[in-house]
Design goal:
Layout lengths: L17 H8 L10 E2 H12 L7 H7 L8 E2 L31 H8 L7 E2 L1 H18 L7 H18 L7 E2 H10 L17 H15 L15
Antiparallel strand pairs: 1-2, 3-4
Helix pairs in contact: 5-6, 5-8, 6-8
Bound molecules: protoporphyrin IX containing FE (HEM) and magnesium ion.
Length: about 230
Amino acid sequence: NNHEWIAPKATDLRSPCPGLNTLANHGYLPRNGRNISVPMMLDAALQGFNVGPDSIIQAAKFGLLSGDDPTTLNLDALKLHSLIEHDASLSRGDFALGDNLHFNATIFTTLANANPGVDYYNATSAGQVQHDRLAISLATNPNIINTPKEFLTRVRESGLYLSVMGNPLTGVAPKKFVQIFFKEERMPIAEGWKRSTTTITAETLNPIEDIVIDNSNWTFTQRCEDLVLGP
Ligand code: HEM
Ligand code: MG
């Protein structure tokens, strides 16, 4: 298998998820972004990022609801608002404000400029970024959806970028790596990044996520029903 980074062609489909897009850009997922099954996503995440299945299987299964095929999805369908896609993203605009699919450099400045004075992001800075991105959306998007469901998704995503681009035991990630991951949807191998030797699981993510939560000073805008994610 060829895992070099190749930018997507105009006909290739991509998602609002920098993780899945990076895996597709490196050929761990089909480069055309089409007909992707749950096992394909779980295998790609493990091979490409050493992300174990337990931390992403719910998202992968939910993702199947984005389209009509019973067992596969196309990456662009994941922009479906409120399935997984939510407002106050780190690198994409809010659905009600236009484009919730493509990387947006203006939106990304909040994360890019976080943790000033040092060359890494950590769970504390990631929580502050979540707070600041939500404050911007609350101020600019009268249709914002911000319930515990969106919050827990956002917290998991912050744990994931810190873990896949950094050290999943400390939650410390070099800024340079995180920025390449979001902006280019590329594994920064040439810059010195290596796939984590520790498998990233719910168990490694939870302590990082707890710090993200503590630093995000979050409150809900609307309530939602409790989520049932499995048996
Ligand atoms: C968003 C990472 C797997 C669906 C995100 C974000 C990150 C991320 C960091 C936040 C982007 C932002 O706020 O701008 C990862 C990593 C994965 C992974 C590292 C695996 C190694 C998955 C899977 C699915 C998924 C399996 C479901 C099929 C999404 C969607 C979003 C998203 C729909 C958009 C949410 C939004 O910002 O509105 N992901 N992800 N991801 N992810 Fe993933
Ligand atoms: Mg979004």
